[in-house]
Every structure is written in C-alpha cells, then in structure tokens.
C-alpha cells in the first residue's frame, strides 16, 4: 500500500488530474443517473403543477386586465355629460339631437375598442338608447334581472356569461355564447341615487385568443367557470362537460387527479379575486408519464456519451490547466531576479487567469508605489485650494454685486437695481450653501429672479405670471427644477412665435405629490418630436445630441432621487403652446434640534 501511495505521489499533476476527473465523472454520472430516474417522477409532477399554475395565473392576469380595461371604458361612458343628462330624464324621451350625440359617443367607444359589440343605456324611467342594440318586446327593460341586480349593487360591475333570455337583441348576428355582458349602475354623485344602467356586450374573441396561445402539455386545455358554476369559456373538448363541480374543493387554489373515460387527468384550478371566476387547467396524466419516459431515455444516452467523451477530453483539459501554470512559474523566476517589467498574458478568466491578473496587478503596484505618495499629496493640496476658492468666490461675488447695486442707487438706475437684485438672489439660492433641497418659496423666488432678468431683455416679447399657493411654500424640493424649464419655454416657445407671448407657472397638490406646470403659448412641438422627447423622459429611448441637457437633467435628478414614478411629462399642440408638468413628492422640511 505504501509503495502504491509513493508511486501516486510521484506522478505528474497532469496524470493525477486525468485520473481524478475520470473518477469524479464516473461516480457523479452513475449516481445521478440511477438516483435521478427514481426521484424525477415525483419532482417533475410537482414542477409541472407549479408551471401549470403559473400559466393559469398568467392567463388569469391577462383576462382580468382585459375585463378591468373594459370596466374603465364603461365608467368613462357613464361619466359622459350627454349620458348623465340622458340618465337624469324622468318620464320623457330624448330628442333626436340628444340621441344623435349619445350615438356619436357610443360609436366612438366601440370604434376604439373593437371587442365591444354593443352598448345600451337604460335610465330608471325605462327610456333606453343604443347605437346597435334594441328591445325585442315592449316590456320595460327596468324589469330585466340584469337591471334589477345592478340597482342592488350600484358600486359593483356585474359580469354575465352566456346572457340568455334577455329582452335585448342586436343587429349583429351572434349567439349568447359568443359574448360577455358587463352591467354597471350610473349613480348621481351628489344624491347617490341610481339613475340608470349601462349594458355592454363584449366579444369572446379576445379571451379565446388568450387561451389559444396557452398550451398545457401536449393535449391539455383550460376553461373558465363563473361564480355560479356556469362555463364562461371552454375549448371544444368533451372532457370539459364530464368534470363535475363537486370534484373541485372550496378554496382559492388547488389540484387533484380524477379518472375520466378510463384515463387519469390532472386538474388544477385557481379562483380570481377580481372577477370571482375559477380558472381550471386539465392535463392528461399520460403527458406527465411521456415526459418522464423521455427523460429516462435521454439520461441513459447522455450518461453513455459523457463517459466516452470524458475519457477523450480529460487529457486535453488537463493540458490547458498545466501550461499556464508553467508559464507563470517561469515569469516568477524572472521577477525574482529583479525584472519587474514581466507580464502574464491570459486568454481565460478562470482561477489561473485571475491568479495571473493578480500577479500583473502586484507588479503594477510595486512600480507605482513610489509615485503614490507624491500624487496623493499633490491632489490633497489641489483639493484644499479648490475648497478655499469655493469659499472665497461666492463671498466675493455677493460683495461685488452689492457694490454695483449701491452705485446704481447713487445714479437712481432703478432698472439696474432690480436686475442686480434678481441676479444676487439667483446666485444665492442656486448655491444654497451646497444643499440639494430648498423650500418651494426659495425655488419660486429663484425662478422669479430669473424672469426679472429675462424681462429686461424681452420686455416687448414676453410676459409671465406665477400662481403658487402659499401653503406649498414650506415643502422641500430639489433646487433649480423650474428655471431650466422656464428657459426652454422662452427660447423654444416664445421666441419662435409671432408677437408677445406669456408664460404661466403654477403648482397644486395632487394626492401625495406636488405638481408644477410651466405653460407657454408659444410655437408648440410637432407630435413626432413630442413623442420622442417623452420617450426619452420615460427612459424608453436614449437622448440624442440634438436635444439640450437642461430638461433631461431635471428629470434625471428627480427620478434618481425619488424613483421613476416622478419626473417630467410634456403636453403640446403645434401652434398653440406647450405645458411641462413636474411631479415631485411632498417633502416636509426637517427641523434641526440640539
């Protein structure tokens, strides 16, 4: 045994690595092959369940988003002035002009939302109007179950699948299985009285397309049940109608295996909290077993191929490991003799490459060590000089401006006094002792000082107005966010128009943020350029050299400090003017104590 160990220790590193590689590969692959085949069945089933549930969640999210979008459309319709006027009519029919205006509104929504097949408005008096739906019999629509259910739950939007038995029809040829109906009550915001109901029929095509793009295994499928257990959507498959509701236990999510027509099926379901629908996925167990069988076969093939390739490639790879080590040993011998200009060149980033890089770095550090102290001392002296200059320059500048202002007072040059005072405020607030945040009061004063200076140049060309509520003055904002945008309004808006222009600067509280708006009646921005600028502001596109940096600098500072939910948005109409909107969080001033 000792003789064998001695023989082993005396072998080269390359020989040892070859033996070790082959031994590790053989043990690992054989262990993984036999153990993996036995354990993969249960694991793959769990993974398949998780994957299927994730797909169900994704489909659920897409459907919920689709329905919520249409709920919003229905809400917008109910808020339309013509619709509100129609809903408030009591015992009278709308005039032809009113019907035409309502029809125009409804047509606009159906043209913009192709999934809408029809919209009907019914007020509490029984009057109704629609651009594409009509009443079948003379019975009042207020007696319909969908109308009465909407009255009972005015704050909810009801979703009716397969709307059968309604006293409503349409000029389009479709069955109740092709549509979903959304029903929403219209409520008077002052009296909270229900004025009527908006009925909207939706195509099932969008939901069908969502489900058609989802594949569960090789022959699985998905379908939807509403809260009453009725099928909202299901593909053409006779298995759907053999699945009994009692098989599916209560709960928001679950899975089970059930035998149908002599075959086992894996059934997974998830309940939507938004629409109270149940999304169900069905996969034949044969799909699971087919995958496991394929994996077993592939594992055996890969095991055999890997063992063969390992024997052929281990010699090559061990050689690639040994060569750079020998090269590094040679370089170290040269360094030991004082040759510090040696460098290790590696084409890899593995441990040997990192060792070589460390070797190079060590040599560079030795070569640079003498110069480090000198460079650091020089930088230190430069930094001290810069700090001293930074302290002297603002003080000297303020004293100089005060001297000029005093001399202007001696000559009673009021216009010069005003400009010098504005310039002093501009510098004082802009520097702000190095602080990044200032009160809204100072930011507004800084902008007003800038406008005073500009008015001295563009008195006949420019007028301005500030409308900032005083209760906003105490909030803190990033400094210098208004002046660059006002400058843009002057040079890109007012100067490009004919005649005298006006710039308005206002602010207001919106939820948890302060919204500043800089509005000019200048030349405006072409739609293509406006969209490109807004894309850059949202981070969807890189800024090109043709655009300045002031606007984007302000936006980037706000977003880097508070996040992408805040920043700048631009609205403009060519030839009419531009509005730049700044969204900044409400930040209270921090009182210093002690």
TrEMBL record:
Its EC number is 2.7.13.3. PROSITE patterns: HAMP, HIS_KIN. Residues 319-371 form the HAMP domain. It is a multi-pass membrane protein. Gene3D superfamilies: 6.10.340.10, Histidine kinase-like ATPase, C-terminal domain, PAS domain. Signal peptide: none annotated. Keywords: ATP-binding, Cell membrane, Kinase, Membrane, Nucleotide-binding, Phosphoprotein, Transferase, Transmembrane, Transmembrane helix, Two-component regulatory system. It catalyses: ATP + protein L-histidine = ADP + protein N-phospho-L-histidine. The chain crosses the membrane at residues 20-37, 297-322. The keyword Thylakoid does not apply. This is histidine kinase. It comes from Paenibacillus chondroitinus.
């Amino acid at each position: 045994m000792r003789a064998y160990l001695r023989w082993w220790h005396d072998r080269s590193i390359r020989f040892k690595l070859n033996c070790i590689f082959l031994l590790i590969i053989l043990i690992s692959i054989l262990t993984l092959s036999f153990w993996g085949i036995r354990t993969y069945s249960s694991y793959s089933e769990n993974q398949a369940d998780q994957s299927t549930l994730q797909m169900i969640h994704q489909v659920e999210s897409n459907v919920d988003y689709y329905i919520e979008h249409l709920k919003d459309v229905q809400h917008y319709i109910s808020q339309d002035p013509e619709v509100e006027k129609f809903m408030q009519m009591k015992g009278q029919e709308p005039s032809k002009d009113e019907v035409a205006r309502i029809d125009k509104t409804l047509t606009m929504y159906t043209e913009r939302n192709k999934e809408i097949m029809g919209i009907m408005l019914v007020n509490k008096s029984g009057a109704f109007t629609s651009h594409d739906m009509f009443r079948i019999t003379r019975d009042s629509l207020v007696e319909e179950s969908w109308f009465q259910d909407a009255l009972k739950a005015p704050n909810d939007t009801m979703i009716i699948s397969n709307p059968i038995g309604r006293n409503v029809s349409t000029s389009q040829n479709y069955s109740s299985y092709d549509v979903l109906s959304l029903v929403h009550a219209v409520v008077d915001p002052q009296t909270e009285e229900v004025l009527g109901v908006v009925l909207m029929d939706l195509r099932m095509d969008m939901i069908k397309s969502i489900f058609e793009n989802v594949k569960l295994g090789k022959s699985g499928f998905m379908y939807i049940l509403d809260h009453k257990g009725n099928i909202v959507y299901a593909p053409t498959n006779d298995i759907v109608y053999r699945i009994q509701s009692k098989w599916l236990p209560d709960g928001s999510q679950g899975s089970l295996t059930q035998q149908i027509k002599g075959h086992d099926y894996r059934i997974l379901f998830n309940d939507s909290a938004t629409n109270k629908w149940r999304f169900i996925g069905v996969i034949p167990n044969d799909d699971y077993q087919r995958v496991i069988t394929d994996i077993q076969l592939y594992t055996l093939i890969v095991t055999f191929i890997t063992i063969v390739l390992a024997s052929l490639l281990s010699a090559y790879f061990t050689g690639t490991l040994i060569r750079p080590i020998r090269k590094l040993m040679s370089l170290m011998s040269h360094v030991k003799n004082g040759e510090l200009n040696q460098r290790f060149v590696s084409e890899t980033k593995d441990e040997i490459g990192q060792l070589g890089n460390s070797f190079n770095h060590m040599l560079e550090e030795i070569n640079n060590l003498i110069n480090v102290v000198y460079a650091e001392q020089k930088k230190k002296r430069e930094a001290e000089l810069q700090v001293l200059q930074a302290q002297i320059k603002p003080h000297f500048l303020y004293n100089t401006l005060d001297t000029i202002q005093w001399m202007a007072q001696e000559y009673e040059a009021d216009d010069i006094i005003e400009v010098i005072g504005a310039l002093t405020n501009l510098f004082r607030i802009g520097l702000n002792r190095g602080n990044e945040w200032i009160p809204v009061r100072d930011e507004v004063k800084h902008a007003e000082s800038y406008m005073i200076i500009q008015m001295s140049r563009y008195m006949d060309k420019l007028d301005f107005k500030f409308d900032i509520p005083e209760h906003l003055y105490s909030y803190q904002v990033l400094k210098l966010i208004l002046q660059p945008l006002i400058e843009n309004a002057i040079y890109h808006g007012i100067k490009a128009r004919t005649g005298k222009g006006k710039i308005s600067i206002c602010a207001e509280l919106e939820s948890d943020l302060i919204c500043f708006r800089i509005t000019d009646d200048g030349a405006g921005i072409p739609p293509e350029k406006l969209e490109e600028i807004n894309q850059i502001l949202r981070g969807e596109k890189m800024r090109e050299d043709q655009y300045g940096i002031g606007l984007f600098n302000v936006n980037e500072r706000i977003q880097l400090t508070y996040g992408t939910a805040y920043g700048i948005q631009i609205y403009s109409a060519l030839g009419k003017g531009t509005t730049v909107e700044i969204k900044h969080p409400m930040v209270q001033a921090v009182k210093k104590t002690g």
